[in-house]
Amino acid sequence: MSKFYLRNQLCIPVDGYNRAMIYDLGRRDYHFISRAYYGLLNTDGFINFDQIADQSERSELIDFLLDLEIIFEVAAQHEEKRFPPVTRSIAYPNQLTHAVIHANISPAFIDVIGNSHLQNLSILAPQISDELLKLIASIKHLEIDGIYLYIENFEAENIERHLTELGRHFALFSVNFFGAATPDTQLRDNIYYNFFTESLQDYCQKTTVDKLFVNHDLFFEAYNKHAYYHGKVYIDQSGQIKNGLNNTQSFGNINSVTAVEFQQIVHSEPFMELGNINKNETLVCKDCEFRYMCTDPRVPVKGDAHWYHPTECQYNPYLSLWQHDDGYLDLQASGVTVSATGCTIDKALLDMKFNQIWSE
């Protein structure tokens, strides 16, 4: 008797150049699978496991997927209609959801942000200071779901006093210290405290494996938009209005615009262009299995047919290696060339390098 299997709609297969993944949105986890298995599972209908000729392999795969609740069995074929597919399109009622500012931000920011509802407000500061604490207190009346602090200079000798002071501000969600002796995460007074050994500058410029997150909101945003630039505004230390921390283009100055003008800027097509980029339109990213859990801060550039990045990511999807992994090679050494005209792959060189690395 044939068995009928459907895929859990919150377990979404995503393909990459060498391998694929299952994004388990419900459990905020992921699992690597082969590209052949991706082809089987990338359906909203019944999964045809009979395409796997080897019975042992077929049974092992089914058991693996059932154990992880990636698939489930239904009793009869007509039950398929009870499990409609989940739409991956999404509407965004608020075009501005995330602002990044510095602790010395002008009071004009509070005036122009007006009644905007922000999901996140990130504040960059050299250290915990009276100026920073006054800023946090001054914005508590705004509609902000969570405030994130990024503290450039970690002061171990003052940490206990700082944590006590910060614990009085209930709007804080997380505080991130940089330049710590050892990495750590603590939960205190309902605030997450993260300690990083790297500098804030390095943290803001790099995509690393610890910055990858699997969850419902991020997946659907990244599937449709650019997860870093969509809905974001950055106000630099001189008040310039930009898309993100690494951008140089300014769209105006917070000190010389009205609230209406500010809203016109952040809702304009030129400002929103980067946020509307899809990773499937971006060279290299479109071949990466991590693309829907990634908030890549690099500034994309528009090429002849695709967007691309002049600087490389920390991950090479053509070798399935991170920069810190043994055997890592950059794109050029792998046989991959990326430019405004497109992406070319020396398949023979790439295959040779891949086999050398993964056969060791």
UniProtKB/TrEMBL annotation:
The organism's place on the tree of life at top rank: Bacteria
Protein name as it appears in the record: Grasp-with-spasm system SPASM domain peptide maturase
Species lineage: Bacteria, Pseudomonadati, Bacteroidota, Sphingobacteriia, Sphingobacteriales
